[in-house]
Each structure stands twice: as C-alpha cells, then as structure tokens.
Design a protein that fits this description.
The protein is an alpha/beta fold and about 260 residues long. The protein has 8 helices and 9 strands. A 5-stranded mixed β-sheet has the order 4-3-1-2-9, sandwiched between helices. Strands 6-5-7-8 form a 4-stranded parallel β-sheet, with helices on both faces. Strand 3, helix 3 and strand 4 form a beta-alpha-beta unit. Helix 4 packs across helix 8 and helix 6 runs parallel beside helix 7. The chain is globular.
Length: about 260
Amino acid sequence: MTRILWINPVGTDAYDAPIGAELRAEAAPGTRVDVCSLPGAGPQHLEWNALEAVVAGPTMGVIRWAAEGGRYDAAVIGCFYDPFLRGARELSGSMAVTAPAEACLHVASTVGERISILVGRKKWIPEMHENVVKYGFADRLASFRVLEMRVEDFQADPEFTQQRIIAEAEAAVEHDRADAVVLGCTIEFGFYREVQRKIGAPVIDAITAPLRYAEFLAALGADHEWHTSRAGGYDAVAPRELSWIPAVEPILNVDPR
C-alpha cells in the first residue's frame, strides 16, 4: 500500500474531511491518503505571503514527523503557492514531497501545449508566476485568469463557483489559445470534471494532480530507488541542526481503509 500524507498548511481543519473524501475517491486502489492541517491556532488561508511565513515552522515540523520511520511514502504540501517545497525536501529522507503547482504544471504541459491558470485574486499572480518560471514552464503559459473570489468563497456557493470557473476556462481556451486549464487553488476542488466536459479541454485539478503525482513519485522510489537527490541543493539538513526543526505530530483525518 502506498501511504500519502496531504498537508493543509493552515490553522483550520475545516477542509480536512472534504478534501480527504475527494482525494480518496480519486486515489489508486492501493493508496491510503491521510489528511491533516497544522495543530494549534494559525492562519485560515495563505493569500498573503506574510501568512506563509507564520506557518513555515509548523509545516516543516509536520514534514519531519511524516518522514520519520518511513511513516509515509509521499507527502503533498497542499497550497498552490507550493510553500517551503525546497525546505521540505531537505527534511524528507526517502519520502517524496510535491506540491500542487509543480504537479499541475507537469501534468498540464504533458496533456497540452499552452496552459491557463485560474486564480482567485490578482494578488496571487506574482508568486504563482515566479513558480511557473522557476519550474521551467514560462513559455507554456497562455494566461492567468482571475475569478475575483477569495479562498473561503470557493466552497460557499458551489454553483456560483462552477459558473465562474466555466466562464474563465472558456475564455482561456477561446481567447488565450490555452489547451489545458489549471485550477490554481486547492479549494477549487470538486469542479474539474464538469468544467472540462463543458469546455472540451483538460482541466487539471489542484488536489487530484498532486495526489496522482505523489503516487507516481512514491512508485519511482519504491521500484527504482529514485529518491530526492542529496548530491546538490537538496542536501539533507545536518543532524546537528535538526533541533531547530522539532517534529510536529498533527491531528489526522485518517483514511478508514
């Protein structure tokens, strides 16, 4: 069985159960998915970069806990900003770690040639664009399209959210010449199948893609020993420095299987 930990790097567990249910419905038969948020009080979302800084330490602590003793084969840091991904890989041992933007862009660039990313607010675009460039997909980017919605809006009125996503996805295909659309927030879950049916192009979901990518990375490690390289920039944190990063055991929404 492949064991995946999905980390919501926020101080609310409001989305743990619905995201867990969605992920388990999408996972391969041999995959177990546990979901957690950060223990204790903390930001309810990471729309501002300053809020990312607040959750850095606890997120690294959960990564360290997940990697200890081979608890999980892979972990996903569940925010489309991909916060702390490099740091997480320095702590991950043989556990694979990915995040939504990285996974979605790899998938989208394989099934399409021009990618449009649907974001909630224009505030999100600069950091997300930095990741597009960093991951090497700048020449594949057709557009960012703004839904004019905050994180907490996406699941408040699902019918309205779906209408907004369909409208911007159609515009991305028709006007921006995108042939793959990425949903640029993990809380945009639950819509991609209907949207791609409407627009006639792949719509890459921000929780499903990283889940399947994590399964793929876990299989590469198990079958071929292709783990995160320690020969360069992902050199593991020295044991003498680990006292600065205490393991943090989260409260889990556990896969019942």
